[in-house]
Amino acid sequence: MDGLTERPTAPEPTTKRPSIVDSALYVDGDRTSSPTSLAETYRELENTPDALAWIGLYRPTNDELASLADEFDLHELAVEDAIVAHQRPKLERYDKTLFVVLRAARYLDDVEEVEFGELHLFVGPNFVITLRHSESPDLSAVRRRLESNPDLLKLGTEAILYAILDRVVDGYAPVVAGLENDIDEIETEVFSGDPAVSRRIYELSREVIEFERATRPLSAVIDALSAGFEKYGTDEELQRYLRDVEDHLTQVIEQVDAFRHLLRDILTVNATLVAQKQNEEMKTLSETSNAQNEEVKKISAWAAILFAPTLVGTVYGMNFESMPELSWRFGYPFAVLLMLGVSVTLYLVFKRRSWI
Asked: What is the Cα–Cα distance from 185 to 182, expressed in whole angstroms?
């Protein structure tokens, strides 16, 4: 890690590790020197006719950026963007220097997420400065590829720029494959009724939108480079190189756009399935409630039927002397008929109303 190392006892200051990842001078496509510092790079570039310098930096300090700005006359607005970072892909031309912002992406299988990295490039007539603010993209493979092909490298700084563009765009392919696999899994989860799928759809939609922000503006960058082919006399081989990059980028943009629409449709389908499930649950609850109500009705009806003779019997069981029916000859049959009549009447009423 960059920074100072502190010890609890007897602290000793240490110098910050240089942010130069690799620095090289090329003449006619061949690597002729590997300076270890910015000052050495400046000196050798000045003393070597027809040399091309490629300086690779990782999270450079403000002092290092200021040194580069002074040496290569970099525009202050471009340097400010390089310091702040968090830029969208773009291309800006300041006199003879191009400032390019690229966003790389890589798919992390273990956490099933997309990690984005930012890369800034200053491209001049005899220098290329690459500034990375994250671990990706790894440009060492690009450098090795170009150094193994001197005929391409000797075409100049544009060859380096196009090779880096190609590396960034090629890095999108595994991301597309990973997102496609995630979407397939989500479709399975949606129709299996997984309750956690809504959150996963939302999170994946956010990643697809972020991926689209990294890829779609890059199309304008390539268009701007293509528009300068004739004006700046771009080599035919480099033109074919950039057109191939453009084709790959177009495929990625179309796939990302399809992912966004597909996730939107999946979210709609999931909402519909959730609503249907809730309706089925409500229907089941309603049917259960209705069944319970029917049982309550039956119990209440039979309780009322049984309560009628109990009430009559209770009244005539009090044995008061002033009750004339007690000494009446037909008192008992009358009471029995009254209980039976009330019970039958209640039974018929409840039966007609389908309570029993």
From this structure: 5
pLDDT given for residue 86 in this prediction: 79
Which is nearest to 246 in space by CA: 182, 176, 190, 165? 165
Strand, helix or coil for residue 262 = helix
What's the chain's average pLDDT? Answer: 83
Q: Max Cα separation, the chain?
A: 143
Non-local (6+) Cβ contacts of 280 within 8 A are none
Q: Which two tokens stand for residue 6?
A: 């502190």
pLDDT for residue 327: 67
Find where tokens 């090629």 sit: 170
Look up the pTM and report it: 0.72
**Contact of 182 with 197, CB cutoff 8 Å:** no
Rounded distance, CA 223 to CA 77, Å?
22
What's the average model confidence in pLDDT over 141-145? 91
Contact 207, 180 (CB under 8 A): no
Q: What percent of the chain has pLDDT over 90?
A: 38
Numbers of helices and strands, H then E, in the chain: 10, 7
23: exposed, middle or buried (Cβ count in 10 Å: 0-12, 13-18, 19+):
buried
Assess whether the previous peptide bond of 137 is cis (omega < 30° from 0). Answer: yes
DSSP state of 16: P
Q: Which of 28-44 are b and which e, b meaning 16 or more Cβ less than 10 Å from the residue's Cβ?
A: ebeeebebeebeebbeb
What string of DSSP letters covers 220-255? Answer: HHHHHHHHTTTTTT--HHHHHHHHHHHHHHHHHHHH
108-130 burial string, b = 16+ CB within 10 Å, else e? eeeebebebbbbbbbbbebbbbb
| Residue 8 DSSP class | S
Residue 28, phi then psi, degrees to nearest 5? 55, 40
